[in-house]
């Protein structure tokens, strides 16, 4: 019985480790998104100060309008570039989370099924037919879990391949 308690403790330990990895991944990606946002905001602020200085010296209204249009286009391009970077971070994060969750699900399922299999082997079942039926059920369940894991992993990867078009907003000149 102590061996079974150790197996359960090991499963819990691995689940905790995966949760810590997931939290760390979340923190790292959140930090990256914040860094991108701060860099874009800082750049836009510096540009607006420089633009205001440049506009204050212009006397011709037509030239001022052209300059404002260039500033607005430059600002829009910076915002879109920042948005693309954030989308890339999100896509990588989704892929990493999918991989981590898939690996954890597969490992946990395999270990749980192995533990159940060990439990049944330890029971005094005299009928070989019953033991074979239990083994067949466990093998079928393991196969179904593997197929489900593979299918969900492929579906999630296909989902993460759909990205925001990199040219969004650039064709408006």
Descriptive overview:
The relative contact order is 0.11. The protein has one domain (14-161). The chain is mainly α and 173 residues long. It has helices at 2-56, 61-122, 128-161. It contains 3 helices and no strands. It is 87% helix and 0% strand. The longest helix is centred in the middle third of the chain and has 62 residues, at 61-122. The model is unreliable at 163-173 (pLDDT under 50).
Largest sheet: none
Summed over residues and divided by their number, the pLDDT gives a mean of 77
What's the assembly state of these chains? single chain
Count all strands and give the number.
0
Distance from first to last alpha carbon:
73 Å
Number of helices: 3
Using the CA coordinates, give the radius of gyration: 28 Å
Q: What percentage of the residues does DSSP assign to strands (E)?
A: under 5%
**Unreliable stretches covering 5 or more consecutive residues:** 163-173
Order of helices and strands: HHH
Q: Based on CA inertia axes, which overall geometry fits?
A: rod-shaped
Helix content class: over 70%
Structural class: mainly alpha
The number of domains is 1
